[in-house]
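Let's sit down with a protein and look at its sequence and fold side by side. Which protein we use is up to you, so please pick one and set it down. Label the sequence line and the structure token line clearly, so we can match residues to local backbone shapes. Go ahead whenever you are ready, and we will take it from there:

***
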Amino acid sequence: MYEQFFGFREKPFSLLPDPDFLYLGNKHSMALALLQYAILNQIMVTVLSGEIGSGKTTLIRHILNQLGDDVNIGLISNTHRNFGELIQWVCLAFGLPVEGKDKITLYQDFYEHLIEEYSMGRRSILIIDEAQNLDIEALEELRLLTNINADKDNVLQLVLIGQPELRQKLKLPGLEQFMQRVGVAYHLKPLGREETDHYIRHRLKSVGGDPDLFEPVALRFIHHQSGGIPRLINVLCDSALVYAYGERRKRIDVGLVHQVVQDKIKTGLLATRKHYTTTTEPPKEAVKSRKSESEQSKKEKVIPGSFSLNKR
């Protein structure tokens, strides 16, 4: 809708995990380096945790795009409370048939699949996203799968991706043996204020837009309200672009972002988390300028086919 108005090739703040937009600040660079190290060095179990929307899945998609034909990947992209038999999902992730087969047969099929892949010089990696939903029994089953080995090589590597609850779950009694197999563990923290600025500019530049489209105070306010969570940053920035397009604005100031936040909180579309606050008052230096701009925009003629947010 607003892409042509701002000169974008595509939307810069999509909520879908897109490795083409990957921003490698300090935290995400470290996470990526550890994931690469774990995979290349055949670490038995790797754990990556982080808040909802912190960019974990985007990192994994980036890693998958880098892997060659010598790696056999099984991806379970989502888990839930009624997950069912783990071995069924594992077999499905590697493209093995499961219909009409009991648990023992599925384990045997999976074992033979891993050995066959290994004999052809291919390593197998099982990646489970949203792994915090796995119960203790499922995690213990995963540990037993790592017992499959050939000579000095790990035939199967595990990469678990999940929310902070995953780290807490792995500390529960009964999972000591599982934890002993974790060779790499990293918690992906939210972006800092400067990283948030760079993240937004990076996204805008990636689609051919003006990296300075958001004024500095607006950037600080976005960080304040998002807590540095990339997905929340995307939500606020995308909405701000819609509002700016509706008011025919070529620059986004803090007052406009303030209006976005207020409207989203009123409609329940901006959830409150411990990382940010519902105190939405913009910095004082922006109030006066926003008021004068708003008054000016009311005088401007609305272009046919567009809409004005001044009437809401």
User: Anything to note?
Assistant: The chain has a mean pLDDT of 85. Residues 19 and 62 are 5 Å apart (CA to CA).
